[in-house]
Amino acid sequence: MAAAPQHSSTQSTGFLDRFFKLSAHGTNVKTEILAGLTTFVTMAYIIIVNPLTLKDAGMDFQGLFTATILAAALSTLVMGLFANWPFALAPGMGMNAFFTFTLTKQMGLPWQTALGVVLISGLLAVIVTATGLRALLIKAIPNSLKHAVGAGIGLFIMLIGLKNAGIIVPSEATMVGLGSLKSAPVLLALFGLVLTGALVAKRVPGNILIGIVVTTLVGIPLGVTKLPTSIVAMPAAPAFMQLDFVGALKIGLIPAIFALFFSDLFDTIGTFIGTAGKAGLLNEDGTLKGGNRALFADSIGTVLGALIGTSNTTTYVESAAGIAAGGRTGLTAVTVSALFLLCLFFSPIALAVPAVATAPALIIVGILMAQAVLEIDLHDFYEAFPAILTAVFMPFTFSIATGLALGFV
User: Do 193 and 317 contact (CB within 8 A), yes or no?
Assistant: First the structure.
């Protein structure tokens, strides 16, 4: 009688190993789930940030909350099951600002028409991916630029972490400056940074996730972590299929469509080539293993997001946190997808993790990724010049796409 559950568990593990090719990627179920937890916690901020950004376009906040979660969960599920990559997707920062402040504010488009623009940009991405052009673009990038993108994304992630922690703040005199080291959030972030750094240095399994959880708990008596007033909350209906596709077909909107398309394209390429190496997904010739499937999943994400009722959905650079925690297959992505879906009903708990608790994780991951600069031949100016410009312009312009575009030029 006692042997039956164990046999069932073994069968389940065996199925997951075969489907996701865990052994072939040198990983296991426990590591993949832990990596998924790590990725989710580092990008969970989008659940609240995206609705806050898009509500200024005239959309319902509660509906946006549901749409953000569904878009992230479904597109990440496609990435995990179809591409078998450990990458997570969600509505992209920057593109949601373009949606609100350019399409609806400056151009005066109704949000329904703006969603139509998003859908067309996503369909264009699907077509370009189906032709293999996106994969060719990635293959054409020199290895020095690939390493530069990895280092640049690392610096970019570090900047986001330092900003979220309040360690770096805006300054009228010097553009940026050091935040107050007396404030509780900054002190909590510094505690988390030292703790997580020590755990990583000691190679403690689940180091990044442990750092986030402990920092969140320590933040309770400091008044930084706000305990949820409830545990369960029912999801509100999203703006499903309320987009205006016909209204988005106007000739005057072609520049906006291409702006979203290229922004998404460069963000995705930058994220893929900057993090794929860490996940063992780069071939010796610099091409991506199963890259076209991953690019297709990314394109489908934008289409799904537009239909559900949110701005461009894209692959998240925070996936690097899960990869650093050992994520190597689509099981990591499936775990992230499941956690997003849980947030539909347990959103108060998911939103209890403060930004200063995830900031140390972003800083640590950034440091790990910045090591890619060692692969660049800095003694060869022909390689060093575009590579270093690519790396530094990502954090300086707060845009992966801009840094990558300048590197191409």
Answer: no
For residues 195 and 214, the answer to whether their CB atoms sit within 8 Å is yes
| DSSP class per residue in 156-184 | HHHHHHHHHHTSEEEETTTEEEE--TTSH
Instruction: Tell me the residue type at 103.
Output: L
Strand partners, 168: 178
**pLDDT tens-digit series, residues 69-122:** 999 999 999 999 999 999 999 998 778 888 988 899 888 999 999 999 999 999
CA 390 to chain centre: 20
Q: Which two tokens stand for residue 69?
A: 């979660």
DSSP 110: -
Taking CA atoms, 80 is separated from 191, 264, 290, in Å, by 34, 20, 12
Give the chain's end-to-end CA distance (angstroms, integer). Answer: 67
What whole-number distance in Å separates Cα of residue 38 and Cα of residue 361? 9
pLDDT band at 255 (very low <50, low <70, confident <90, very high): confident
Residue 226: which of 317, 119, 141, 350 has the closest Cα? 350
What tens digit of pLDDT does each residue of 129-181 get? 888 777 676 677 787 887 888 788 889 889 888 988 999 999 888 888 999 99
This prediction has a pTM of 0.75
d(CA 134, CA 127): 10
What number of other Cβ atoms are within 10 A of residue 225's Cβ? 18
